[in-house]
Write a structure and sequence with these properties.
heterodimer, A: alpha+beta, Phosphorylase Kinase, domain 1, 2 domains, B: mainly alpha, 9 helices
């Protein structure tokens, strides 16, 4: 449960994430998953709190403090505001229709937001945090237009050498192909966040989810239809290529500029670099911030 | 070997945990204990290093040390926290209690110690990641060499 609250002492407005009481040893088995069974402080919240505590950046939500009383955990964070997904949903179709003045504003907003998304991701990667759940819902918009990254439940400190990790990360629509194709325990690292950021970018511009599959195979089909079925060379990014891949149609890559109407050439180029199949070829957050798409003054005009 | 370790523990029990050497020895005993009953075959060096780091930081907090008179509680809590962060082994508190029988600790005491450790460390539990290590190296490098080193780090 997440609720908004105000400190009686400082007057500061915060959000508090309440996690239900941990069961006793003889407690209800159904509660075990949520509360971490008989492991004391639940692992997932320990990790979330620890990761948020490790971050200190204007584009990452700040964890104020954690309380733990009689088994109930409360994570107090700064209050930010609406998330990007809800904000996009609140805009009318006119904002996403080409040649309309409002669409021009959305294109500017996309650039303005995307720069902050990449700054937040770059910071996390620079301190060794793999986010694993980058999506519009996990970016909150503050009253001054600053975007703040949240949603650290699936995040973790990255490993070197890389070790197989769980496949059950990243919301399906934003999940990188190397995770989907990587078997039960795929090996993946920071580029999975860049793929998700690319999907987020496209969604900000079009108002629609870029790849919306209803299953893992459905998701792959959506990706392949737009970006083309990967060649043999590109398949080398997979940990263990499933046999059904050979049975899929050989789609040719479609034009991203057609799909993202109105987006400038630099923007399309950046997106295409974020959505490269091979993780090693995919642009890094730091290099993306140096991309021509972000050069020059791109302050947001008012509507 | 297991029984010999238990004898060691009984001796340790008599000491207070204000002595860092005792604390480090305590955590070694705990790790050995866990290993001897086969619940931590995958125990890796990162867990041990983190446990030691937490223990060292906790030992500087006099109030915390004073509040846990049983010498084994803080090491166990530090180890439990490190295990969770590294996700090496999902250890259950109820499994730890019989292993620590000579110390006569119960589950609630371990839970309390765990929270006290987390609170004392203010959730600053992050391991030294490669990225962080490289940043430190870059900071220490002479100004003239930084760009070249940064290029190497990027690769």
């Amino acid at each position: 449960m997440v609720v908004k609250c105000e400190s009686r002492v400082s007057g500061k407005v915060m959000v508090v994430k309440r996690i239900k009481k941990m069961p006793s040893v003889s407690g209800d088995a159904s509660d075990e998953d949520e509360a971490g069974a008989d492991q004391g402080f639940p692992v997932r919240y320990l990790r979330e709190a620890c990761l948020l505590r490790a971050c200190n950046h204007p584009n990452v939500m700040k964890l104020e403090f954690v309380t733990y009383h009689e088994g109930q955990i409360e994570l107090f964070s700064e209050f930010v505001g609406l998330n990007v997904e809800d904000y996009i949903s609140s805009l009318s179709d006119e904002y996403f229709t080409r040649n309309k003045q409002k669409h021009e504003w959305v294109l500017q907003l996309g650039r303005y937001f995307m720069k902050q998304v990449l700054k937040g991701i770059d910071y996390c990667h620079s301190i060794g945090i793999l986010l694993r759940d980058v999506k519009p819902r996990n970016f909150l918009i503050s009253s001054d237009g600053t975007l703040k990254l949240t949603g650290f439940v699936l995040a973790r400190f990255s490993l070197l050498p890389e070790e197989p990790l769980t496949q059950q990360v990243v919301t399906l629509s934003y999940r990188a192909p190397e995770i989907i194709l990587g078997g039960t325990y795929p090996v993946y690292t920071a580029p999975v966040d860049i793929w998700s950021a690319g999907c987020t970018f496209a969604e900000m511009i079009t108002g629609r989810t870029l790849f919306e599959g209803d299953s893992e195979i459905g998701q792959l089909l959506k990706i392949f239809k737009l970006l083309g079925t990967p060649s043999d060379c590109n398949k080398s990014f997979c940990f263990e290529v499933p046999s059904y891949i050979e049975l899929l149609p050989q789609w040719q890559p479609q034009s991203l500029s057609e799909r993202l109407e109105g987006l400038c050439d630099e923007g399309v180029d950046l997106l295409s670099r974020m959505l490269l199949y091979h993780p090693c070829s995919r642009i890094t957050a730091r290099d993306a911030l140096k991309h021509p798409y972000f050069q020059g003054d791109h302050s947001l005009m008012k509507t | 070997h297991f029984h010999a370790l238990l004898q060691d523990e009984v001796e340790l029990k008599k000491q207070e945990c204000t002595d860092p050497v005792t604390m480090i020895r305590s955590i070694q005993v705990v790790l050995e204990l866990c290993h001897s009953v086969g619940i931590m075959d995958d125990m890796d060096s990162e867990v041990i290093a983190l446990s030691m780091n937490y223990l060292q930081r906790c030992s500087q907090n006099e109030k915390l040390v004073q509040s846990f008179r049983k010498s084994v509680l803080l090491p166990v809590a530090c180890m439990l926290t490190a295990l969770k962060l590294c996700e090496t082994y999902a250890v259950r508190i109820c499994d730890l209690v019989p292993l620590l029988q000579p110390f006569q600790v119960d589950e609630d005491e371990i839970r309390d110690a765990e929270w006290a450790v987390l609170e004392a460390l203010d959730f600053n539990l992050q391991p030294v990641t490669t990225s962080r290590l490289l940043s430190c190296v870059l900071d220490l490098a002479p100004e003239t060499k930084r760009n070249a080193l940064r290029d190497v780090a990027d690769i």
